[in-house]
Fold this protein.
Amino acid sequence: MKRYALKIFYIGSRYHGFAIQPDKLTVEGELISALKKCGYIKDRKNAKINYASRTDKGVHAVSQVFAFNSLKPLIPMHVNSFLPPDITVWAYASVGDKFNARKDATERHYLYVLPIISSVSIKKIEEASSLFEGQHDFSSFMRKRQKVIWEIKEFKVSQPHGSLLYIEIKAPSFTRGMILKMVGSLIMVGLGKISLRDLENALEGKTTLNITPAPAEGLILLNVKYREDICFQVEPKALERALNKLQDEIKNLITKTSSRYVLFSLLKSIGHAFL
Protein backbone atom coordinates (compact mmCIF):
# COMPACT_ATOMS: atom_id res chain seq x y z
CA MET A 1 0.00 0.00 0.00
CA LYS A 2 1.12 3.55 -0.72
CA ARG A 3 0.12 6.49 1.48
CA TYR A 4 -1.03 9.78 0.00
CA ALA A 5 -1.97 13.22 1.30
CA LEU A 6 -4.52 15.17 -0.73
CA LYS A 7 -5.27 18.91 -0.79
CA ILE A 8 -9.02 19.38 -0.94
CA PHE A 9 -11.03 22.45 -1.96
CA TYR A 10 -14.69 22.49 -0.93
CA ILE A 11 -17.65 24.76 -0.35
CA GLY A 12 -19.12 23.63 2.95
CA SER A 13 -22.56 25.18 2.61
CA ARG A 14 -24.56 22.02 2.00
CA TYR A 15 -22.51 19.69 4.20
CA HIS A 16 -22.86 18.81 7.88
CA GLY A 17 -19.17 19.46 8.42
CA PHE A 18 -16.12 17.62 7.13
CA ALA A 19 -16.08 14.52 9.37
CA ILE A 20 -18.22 11.55 8.40
CA GLN A 21 -21.50 11.18 10.35
CA PRO A 22 -24.24 8.54 10.18
CA ASP A 23 -27.08 9.54 7.82
CA LYS A 24 -25.55 13.00 7.22
CA LEU A 25 -24.04 14.50 4.07
CA THR A 26 -20.38 15.28 4.84
CA VAL A 27 -17.28 16.13 2.83
CA GLU A 28 -15.38 13.13 4.19
CA GLY A 29 -18.30 10.87 3.33
CA GLU A 30 -18.20 12.06 -0.29
CA LEU A 31 -14.42 11.56 -0.45
CA ILE A 32 -14.60 8.03 0.94
CA SER A 33 -17.38 7.15 -1.47
CA ALA A 34 -15.32 8.42 -4.43
CA LEU A 35 -12.17 6.60 -3.30
CA LYS A 36 -14.12 3.35 -2.97
CA LYS A 37 -15.69 3.71 -6.42
CA CYS A 38 -12.21 4.30 -7.88
CA GLY A 39 -10.84 1.21 -6.14
CA TYR A 40 -8.29 3.12 -4.05
CA ILE A 41 -9.70 1.94 -0.72
CA LYS A 42 -12.03 -0.80 0.53
CA ASP A 43 -13.03 0.72 3.86
CA ARG A 44 -12.16 3.63 6.13
CA LYS A 45 -10.36 1.63 8.83
CA ASN A 46 -7.88 -0.19 6.61
CA ALA A 47 -7.17 3.00 4.68
CA LYS A 48 -5.99 4.63 7.95
CA ILE A 49 -7.70 7.90 7.09
CA ASN A 50 -6.96 11.13 8.94
CA TYR A 51 -7.25 14.82 8.09
CA ALA A 52 -5.90 18.19 9.18
CA SER A 53 -9.04 19.91 10.44
CA ARG A 54 -12.52 18.81 11.47
CA THR A 55 -14.30 21.79 9.95
CA ASP A 56 -17.86 22.37 11.18
CA LYS A 57 -21.10 22.62 9.24
CA GLY A 58 -20.97 25.48 6.74
CA VAL A 59 -17.19 26.02 6.93
CA HIS A 60 -15.28 26.07 3.62
CA ALA A 61 -11.73 25.07 2.69
CA VAL A 62 -9.19 25.94 0.04
CA SER A 63 -6.60 23.48 1.32
CA GLN A 64 -7.90 20.81 3.68
CA VAL A 65 -5.42 17.90 3.89
CA PHE A 66 -6.71 14.33 3.81
CA ALA A 67 -4.39 11.30 4.15
CA PHE A 68 -5.06 7.64 3.36
CA ASN A 69 -3.44 4.35 2.34
CA SER A 70 -4.18 3.51 -1.29
CA LEU A 71 -4.47 0.08 -2.88
CA LYS A 72 -3.02 1.42 -6.15
CA PRO A 73 -1.25 4.48 -7.62
CA LEU A 74 -3.34 7.64 -7.33
CA ILE A 75 -4.79 9.61 -10.24
CA PRO A 76 -6.46 12.73 -8.75
CA MET A 77 -8.69 13.38 -11.76
CA HIS A 78 -10.03 9.84 -11.40
CA VAL A 79 -11.17 10.71 -7.88
CA ASN A 80 -12.61 14.04 -9.03
CA SER A 81 -14.76 12.28 -11.62
CA PHE A 82 -16.70 10.69 -8.74
CA LEU A 83 -16.94 13.85 -6.59
CA PRO A 84 -19.68 16.51 -6.65
CA PRO A 85 -18.65 19.87 -8.20
CA ASP A 86 -18.29 21.59 -4.81
CA ILE A 87 -15.43 19.25 -3.76
CA THR A 88 -12.14 19.03 -5.68
CA VAL A 89 -8.82 17.23 -5.10
CA TRP A 90 -6.31 19.72 -6.55
CA ALA A 91 -2.92 18.54 -5.24
CA TYR A 92 -1.36 15.41 -3.75
CA ALA A 93 1.84 14.15 -2.13
CA SER A 94 3.34 10.73 -1.49
CA VAL A 95 3.97 10.51 2.26
CA GLY A 96 5.45 8.05 4.73
CA ASP A 97 3.46 5.22 6.29
CA LYS A 98 3.24 7.06 9.62
CA PHE A 99 2.17 10.44 8.22
CA ASN A 100 -0.75 11.90 10.15
CA ALA A 101 -2.45 14.91 8.55
CA ARG A 102 -3.61 16.23 11.93
CA LYS A 103 -0.67 15.47 14.23
CA ASP A 104 2.07 16.35 11.73
CA ALA A 105 0.66 19.78 10.87
CA THR A 106 2.87 22.63 12.09
CA GLU A 107 0.48 25.50 11.35
CA ARG A 108 -3.15 26.07 10.40
CA HIS A 109 -4.17 29.23 8.61
CA TYR A 110 -7.81 30.37 8.65
CA LEU A 111 -9.56 33.31 7.07
CA TYR A 112 -12.85 34.76 8.25
CA VAL A 113 -14.74 36.99 5.80
CA LEU A 114 -16.86 39.55 7.61
CA PRO A 115 -19.28 41.78 5.67
CA ILE A 116 -19.05 45.35 6.99
CA ILE A 117 -22.16 47.00 8.37
CA SER A 118 -22.45 50.64 9.38
CA SER A 119 -23.13 49.92 13.06
CA VAL A 120 -19.79 48.12 13.54
CA SER A 121 -16.66 50.08 14.46
CA ILE A 122 -13.79 48.86 12.26
CA LYS A 123 -11.30 50.78 14.41
CA LYS A 124 -12.40 48.92 17.56
CA ILE A 125 -12.22 45.57 15.74
CA GLU A 126 -8.66 46.34 14.62
CA GLU A 127 -7.68 47.36 18.16
CA ALA A 128 -9.25 44.21 19.61
CA SER A 129 -7.50 41.95 17.10
CA SER A 130 -4.09 43.06 18.38
CA LEU A 131 -4.87 41.51 21.78
CA PHE A 132 -4.96 37.92 20.52
CA GLU A 133 -1.39 37.34 19.32
CA GLY A 134 0.89 35.43 21.69
CA GLN A 135 0.05 33.21 24.66
CA HIS A 136 -3.18 33.92 26.52
CA ASP A 137 -5.93 32.29 28.56
CA PHE A 138 -8.56 31.22 26.01
CA SER A 139 -11.07 29.82 28.51
CA SER A 140 -13.80 32.13 27.19
CA PHE A 141 -13.27 30.80 23.68
CA MET A 142 -13.55 27.09 24.49
CA ARG A 143 -16.66 24.92 24.52
CA LYS A 144 -15.65 23.60 27.93
CA ARG A 145 -14.95 26.34 30.42
CA GLN A 146 -11.53 25.55 31.84
CA LYS A 147 -8.26 27.45 32.07
CA VAL A 148 -6.49 26.90 28.75
CA ILE A 149 -3.30 28.67 27.72
CA TRP A 150 -3.07 28.83 23.93
CA GLU A 151 -0.68 30.50 21.50
CA ILE A 152 -1.81 32.44 18.44
CA LYS A 153 1.04 33.09 15.99
CA GLU A 154 -0.72 35.72 13.91
CA PHE A 155 -4.02 37.58 14.09
CA LYS A 156 -4.48 40.13 11.33
CA VAL A 157 -7.40 42.28 10.15
CA SER A 158 -7.41 43.85 6.69
CA GLN A 159 -9.90 45.46 4.32
CA PRO A 160 -8.96 44.44 0.74
CA HIS A 161 -12.51 45.06 -0.46
CA GLY A 162 -14.59 48.04 0.61
CA SER A 163 -17.47 45.95 1.92
CA LEU A 164 -15.48 43.10 3.48
CA LEU A 165 -13.12 42.61 6.40
CA TYR A 166 -10.60 39.77 6.23
CA ILE A 167 -9.63 38.29 9.59
CA GLU A 168 -6.62 35.97 9.26
CA ILE A 169 -5.57 33.70 12.10
CA LYS A 170 -2.56 31.38 12.30
CA ALA A 171 -1.69 28.91 15.04
CA PRO A 172 -0.32 25.37 15.35
CA SER A 173 -3.84 24.18 16.19
CA PHE A 174 -7.29 25.29 17.34
CA THR A 175 -10.04 23.68 19.37
CA ARG A 176 -13.48 23.15 17.89
CA GLY A 177 -15.47 26.40 17.69
CA MET A 178 -12.56 28.48 18.98
CA ILE A 179 -12.11 30.66 15.89
CA LEU A 180 -15.80 31.45 15.59
CA LYS A 181 -15.80 32.63 19.20
CA MET A 182 -12.71 34.78 18.65
CA VAL A 183 -14.32 36.42 15.64
CA GLY A 184 -17.58 36.69 17.58
CA SER A 185 -15.78 38.62 20.31
CA LEU A 186 -14.44 41.08 17.70
CA ILE A 187 -17.96 41.64 16.40
CA MET A 188 -19.19 42.21 19.97
CA VAL A 189 -16.43 44.78 20.53
CA GLY A 190 -17.24 46.44 17.21
CA LEU A 191 -20.91 46.68 18.19
CA GLY A 192 -20.07 48.02 21.66
CA LYS A 193 -21.51 45.00 23.46
CA ILE A 194 -18.22 44.38 25.25
CA SER A 195 -15.24 46.70 25.75
CA LEU A 196 -11.59 46.27 24.86
CA ARG A 197 -10.90 46.04 28.59
CA ASP A 198 -13.44 43.21 28.93
CA LEU A 199 -11.67 41.27 26.18
CA GLU A 200 -8.24 41.99 27.61
CA ASN A 201 -9.32 40.81 31.09
CA ALA A 202 -10.71 37.59 29.60
CA LEU A 203 -7.45 36.86 27.76
CA GLU A 204 -5.55 37.47 31.01
CA GLY A 205 -7.78 34.97 32.81
CA LYS A 206 -9.24 37.60 35.13
CA THR A 207 -12.81 37.00 33.99
CA THR A 208 -14.86 34.97 31.50
CA LEU A 209 -17.08 36.25 28.72
CA ASN A 210 -20.27 34.85 27.22
CA ILE A 211 -19.44 35.18 23.55
CA THR A 212 -21.83 34.68 20.66
CA PRO A 213 -19.94 32.71 17.96
CA ALA A 214 -19.72 34.23 14.49
CA PRO A 215 -21.66 32.40 11.73
CA ALA A 216 -19.74 29.39 10.38
CA GLU A 217 -20.41 30.34 6.75
CA GLY A 218 -17.77 33.09 6.85
CA LEU A 219 -14.90 30.77 7.84
CA ILE A 220 -12.40 29.32 5.36
CA LEU A 221 -9.52 26.92 6.04
CA LEU A 222 -6.87 28.52 3.82
CA ASN A 223 -3.80 26.37 4.35
CA VAL A 224 -2.12 23.74 6.50
CA LYS A 225 1.68 23.64 6.79
CA TYR A 226 3.92 20.60 7.21
CA ARG A 227 7.64 19.84 7.19
CA GLU A 228 9.47 21.07 4.09
CA ASP A 229 10.00 17.51 2.83
CA ILE A 230 6.24 17.06 2.33
CA CYS A 231 5.96 18.24 -1.28
CA PHE A 232 2.54 18.55 -2.89
CA GLN A 233 2.15 18.22 -6.64
CA VAL A 234 -0.52 20.47 -8.14
CA GLU A 235 -2.91 18.98 -10.71
CA PRO A 236 -3.64 21.74 -13.28
CA LYS A 237 -6.59 19.82 -14.74
CA ALA A 238 -8.12 19.54 -11.28
CA LEU A 239 -7.87 23.29 -10.74
CA GLU A 240 -9.38 23.89 -14.15
CA ARG A 241 -12.19 21.46 -13.32
CA ALA A 242 -12.93 23.32 -10.10
CA LEU A 243 -12.97 26.68 -11.84
CA ASN A 244 -15.24 25.48 -14.62
CA LYS A 245 -17.74 23.68 -12.39
CA LEU A 246 -17.83 26.18 -9.54
CA GLN A 247 -17.75 29.47 -11.41
CA ASP A 248 -21.40 29.68 -12.38
CA GLU A 249 -22.65 28.52 -8.98
CA ILE A 250 -20.52 30.97 -7.03
CA LYS A 251 -21.26 33.92 -9.30
CA ASN A 252 -24.93 33.44 -8.55
CA LEU A 253 -24.23 33.52 -4.83
CA ILE A 254 -21.78 36.43 -4.60
CA THR A 255 -24.39 38.79 -3.23
CA LYS A 256 -25.69 36.21 -0.76
CA THR A 257 -22.52 34.87 0.84
CA SER A 258 -19.36 36.95 0.68
CA SER A 259 -17.11 34.06 1.74
CA ARG A 260 -18.08 32.15 -1.40
CA TYR A 261 -16.87 35.06 -3.50
CA VAL A 262 -13.56 34.94 -1.64
CA LEU A 263 -13.32 31.17 -2.18
CA PHE A 264 -13.71 31.68 -5.90
CA SER A 265 -11.10 34.46 -5.93
CA LEU A 266 -8.62 32.30 -4.02
CA LEU A 267 -9.11 29.31 -6.28
CA LYS A 268 -8.77 31.52 -9.34
CA SER A 269 -5.48 32.94 -8.04
CA ILE A 270 -4.17 29.40 -7.50
CA GLY A 271 -5.25 28.57 -11.04
CA HIS A 272 -3.40 31.55 -12.53
CA ALA A 273 -0.25 30.47 -10.69
CA PHE A 274 -0.24 26.89 -11.91
CA LEU A 275 -2.28 26.60 -15.11
About this structure: The chain has two domains: 2-104+226-274, 107-218. The chain is about 30% helix and 25% strand. The longest helix spans residues 236-253. Residues 137 and 205 are 5 Å apart (CA to CA).
